[in-house]
Amino acid sequence: MLALVLALLSLTSIAAVLFKFITADGDFTLLSKKHAKREEVEDKVVWITGASRGIGEVLAKQFASLGAKLIISARNEAELERVKKLLTGKHAPDEVIILPLDLASGEDSLNDAVQKAESCFSNAGVDYMIHNAAYERPDIASRSNWVELNMMKLAWHMKTTALDVTEESLKKTNCFTTLFCMQATFNINVMGTLSLTRLLAASMLRRGRGHFVVMSSAAGKTPAPGQAVYSASKFALNGYFHSLRSELYRKGIKVTIVCPGPIKTSSVPEANTSGQKGSSEKRVSSERCAELTIIAATHGLKEAWISFQPVLAVMYLVQYMPSIGYWLMDKIGEKRIEVAAQKGDTYSLSLLLGRKKAL
Q1: pTM for the predicted model, two decimal places
Q2: How far does the signal peptide extend, from start to end residue (predicted)?
Q3: Could you give the dihedral angle defined by the CA atoms of residues 115, 106, 232 and 169, in that order, rounded to the nearest 10 degrees?
Q4: Where in the sequence numbering do the catalytic residues fall?
Q5: pLDDT tens string 61-115
Q6: Which of 18, 30, 156, 289 would give a disulfide with 26, using CB separation of 3.0 to 4.6 Å?
Q7: Reduced to 3 states, what is the DSSP secondary structure of residue 328?
């Protein structure tokens, strides 16, 4: 009888864990933390790039509500002004600093931005650097030449496979084709972010404290067929910032890398941090993504995953059972590219089950 009771309890526990995993929107360590630690960010200086829309805007709202002193950056100053007016909190909106920033503007410009940020709030210095800015499609609506318009549309909508990348394409910066998008992706997602980090880290090291929070992607943890260049840029970020943390952790520098899958944003409904379009995927809301990001940062997590299934399961497989995870991605890779070309659901289980379309 006792054995039967124990068996039932074991089965119940296993079922509960499976249910939690199936319905999860983040990794188990992240979800176990429940709430953000307000005391970790209240009255701290938080600098957010890409804060004019999407996840960056929501991060600004949530950090402001927790009492942080905010510096918000993006290229569009008018949009930053709009966001500032929406912020409420102990230091918002009146004390919020707007600092226009273009990550592709070069090291001199980035250094000027760092000096300005460090001088804010009576030279308090930046406590949290939220690397949220990333390359997105050009502003097609602002272009007048229809030929240029069509080339830019092509550049965005074409799926970039690994064989599309050449050494020459990565050097070109003056054409509105897929080649332009490759260069822009690395300039902003990687080189600009790394340069800003190097410049700011010097000040953090002098103070003996600082925390980099990096908005990476699930595409930086697993193969992403059809998104080879975007995936490469996110793998580069992950490798750099994990190495940076290992080098500087004992000197007071922390790093949290956040890897979201498909995210629903109000400003650009079809966009997500995995670089893929489509309307039928199950997405985590931008509000929930920001909430979990701040939870990860305030609890000092080194890495956090944010996604619904099946992306979350694939991340676990690639991390802990790589042979199976990579076999799975090899199985669906070609079909995923075909579905992406048809603007279908590139995260559908039907890809694994052998159906040709996931529309």
Answers
A1: 0.85
A2: 1-16
A3: 180
A4: 230
A5: 999 999 999 999 999 999 999 999 999 999 999 999 999 999 999 999 999 999 9
A6: 30
A7: helix
